[in-house]
Amino acid sequence: MKNYIKADEWNIVEEGFDPHLNKISESLFSIGNGRMGQRANFEEDYTGETLQGNYVAGVYYPDKTRVGWWKNGYPEYFAKVLNATNWIGLNIQIDGETLDLNTATVGDFKRVLNMKEGTLSRHFTAKLKSGKMVQVESIRFCSIVDDEVAALHYRIKALNFKGQISITSFIDGDVKNQDSNYDEKFWEEVAQQQEKNTDYLVLRTKKTEFDVCTVSQTSIFKNAELQTLSPVTKDKYLGQQASFAVVQNEVIDLYKIAANLSSQNYDKSDLLSAAKATILKAAEKGFEQLKQEQAIAWAQKWEEGDIVIEGDVAAQQAIRFNIFQLNQTYTGKDARLNIGPKGFTGEKYGGSTYWDTEAYCIPFYLSVAPQEVAKNLLVYRYKHLDKAIENATKLGFNNGAALYPMVTMNGEECHNEWEITFEEIHRNGAIAFAIFNYIRYTGDERYLADYGLEVLIGIARFWKQRVNWSAERNKFVMLGVTGPNEYENNINNNWYTNKLAAWCLTYATEAAEKVKSLDPEQYLKIVEKTKLQEMSEFKDWNSVATQMYYPYHEGEEVFLQQDGFMDKEQILVKDLPADQRPLNQKWSWDRILRSCYIKQADVLQGMYFFEEEFDLETLRRNFNFYESRTVHESSLSPCVHSILAAKLNDEEKAYEFYLRTARLDLDDYNNDTEDGLHITSMAGTWMSVVEGFAGMRVKEDKLAFQPFLPKNWAAFSFTIGFRGLQLKVQINESELIITNHSEESLTLRVFEQEYAVPPGEKTIAYKTSLV
Ligand code: BGC
């Protein structure tokens, strides 16, 4: 755990330069705009520890799989998000000596991520070996207005000398991924072009053949005079270079406007001309205007989805950091894109899509972004349906059964550990649940007819075939699975998976009925396309759903995570010596698998999804039983526990779990922030506030709240959109104040009581009902 980020409501601030923390800061201060993003690498050369990262959404490389023992059904490759051309590069020489913060003496260092306006800035002084000192101020951003564009302003001042400053402003595509399986470079050069002060570099990914054109225009001013630059070229590298005689206190200003255009959006033959048009347009606006537009666009985002916490700056900073990073990662403009667990902040997890999106991210985007955004996340899976069917077929399923991949870029499975690839199949259920969740929130039943039903049919067919009848139990059972708790593999009858499967089968039938009445013509088309045998398939689905086996422990009166769970030695986490944790670093896998310790919500994940089926006593018993065995070694774990604890009125626990999720990266709680941020769990943090502390749910088409105010806070508020209405919800110790910014009234529930809320503000007194 670290504690070096300064508390501030709108900014992430690092003061003083500690090279040991640099990789963590590179992750924390990452910037992005949904289409591209980058780690907070320095513009100038840096020979210290760094993970260089520039990423272009959707551009990946199928890195050939490396596994010890090949199993039939394994994917051939792991799709990796690529470290792409570095557009910020500046090589700075002071009388022939390179400016490098690893070798210089650094003073007055400050790095700021301004979340209000979406910029990253840095300030420092550097004393070189020669004794010459410079002062640097830089600010850069990836535009969320034009998501192909990024910009940088870099100012350098000679502090104590008269001499020569040389600057080469470059774009460099000769980059690698640290996680490359065979130490291979993934890019080949297609074209270079230089025109005046503008560099164009077109690179192509090997195998996948994505072309990306990076263009950068550099302008350097000395004493407000634009300088002439000389072109420099190397393999996969282009630059603009100039040398200046400076006297003490003289300042040089460098502006760099850049863009990344990918062949996903243009014909390859048009890429260069499109890049020219883009850079021309951006350059016409210039740095200051682009920056102003950025601030306005971010103000709009905050208007739609801020959370304000009064009386606790650290909590305020944390929640804004989570919201900011989510908005930087996914904007919903493009249904081919998704949310990698590390977003644009690192290589780990390949930048690919996991069940995290459906289980954790959908509620966030549903509430804080236009409906299209969450819809696009669902459509992404619709577009991958054929691949999911192919994937299931490869594993021996038939009749259009679909198994969505555990990890994917383009719909194909990328994961290759048998216990996850073949067994962690609950992901299929999360995809169906997200459809349900989307419709519950938006009321957009049309989605089922247009996209959802086909997906649900494929998923239902999979579950139907994945179970088998146990004559012994006289029930359907599901053998050989891994639940969300990955600290158990190849188990039988994971309660969560069985529950989810049964629910999917029922929901698919209900969805079919719905589409049939909503749009009979479309229904027939779907029946034809999917070759659905209505009578027999619905009957089969129903029979599995109603005769599913659910493990239960009579003594503890809890749903049993899986068959045989109680055979394990039941030593609670509180009795585990602290030096044994985290288990995944301290224990062998074998020992973990034999233990009762749980990585993340499993039974409790199911109780969270289907909460209306369980009374509070049942929830409490299961919560107490499972939480005391849970080590929360997945970043996705604390948020679900926080929400459930809030529901159980265990305010202290709810807050404790909230803190673990909210500042997970800022405080480097799991010692892994340097690899990148836990983007998908950030949505869970948002859920902990909105679904946890505010207790927000959608029940029978209405918003419902069961709020409480965490002890350390004076009040909190958040903004959401709901079915065309724009709402602000403020919660203090005894009141929920709702502001309806729309023209229409709405009805909402606070602790079981209904209230009509006309346009304007309404105060509703509440009392937390202790249970
Ligand atoms: C979790 C998975 C999750 C993945 C990516 C793993 O540690 O156990 O549930 O999908 O991380 O976030």
Description:
With 771 residues, this protein is an alpha+beta fold. 33% of the residues lie in helices and 26% in strands. The strands form eight sheets. Strands 1, 2, 10, 11, 12, 13, 15, 16, 17, 18 and 21 form an eleven-stranded antiparallel beta sheet that branches. It has a five-stranded antiparallel beta sheet with strand order 9-8-14-20-19, with no helix packed on it. It has a five-stranded antiparallel beta sheet with strand order 22-29-30-31-34. Strand 19 and strand 20 (237-246) form a beta hairpin. Helix 4 packs across helix 19 (679-693), helix 8 (426-442) packs antiparallel against helix 9 and helix 9 (446-466) runs antiparallel to helix 10 (495-518). The longest helix is centred in the middle third of the chain and has 35 residues, at 271-305. The two termini are 35 Å apart. The mean pLDDT is 96. Beta-D-glucopyranose binds at residues 341, 349, 354-356, 484, 486, 599-600, 634, 636, 680. Beta-D-glucopyranose binds next to loops.
How are the SSEs ordered, and which strands pair?
Blueprint: E1 5-6, E2 11-15, H1 22-28, E3 31-32, E4 36-38, E5 54-56, E6 60-64, E7 77-81, E8 90-94, E9 97-98, E10 105-114, E11 119-127, E12 133-142, E13 149-158, E14 163-172, E15 187-195, E16 198-205, E17 211-222, E18 225-226, E19 230-234, E20 237-246, E21 251-262, H2 271-305, E22 307-310, H3 313-329, H4 356-368, H5 371-383, H6 385-394, H7 418-421, H8 426-442, H9 446-466, E23 468-470, E24 475-477, H10 495-518, H11 520-530, H12 534-546, E25 552-553, E26 558-559, H13 583-586, H14 589-594, H15 603-609, H16 616-627, H17 637-647, H18 651-662, H19 679-693, E27 697-699, E28 702-705, E29 715-722, E30 725-731, E31 735-740, E32 746-750, E33 753-757, E34 760-765
Parallel strand pairs: 28-32
Antiparallel strand pairs: 1-2, 2-10, 3-4, 4-5, 6-7, 8-9, 8-14, 10-11, 11-12, 12-13, 13-21, 14-20, 15-16, 16-17, 17-18, 17-21, 19-20, 22-29, 23-24, 25-26, 27-28, 29-30, 30-31, 31-34, 32-33
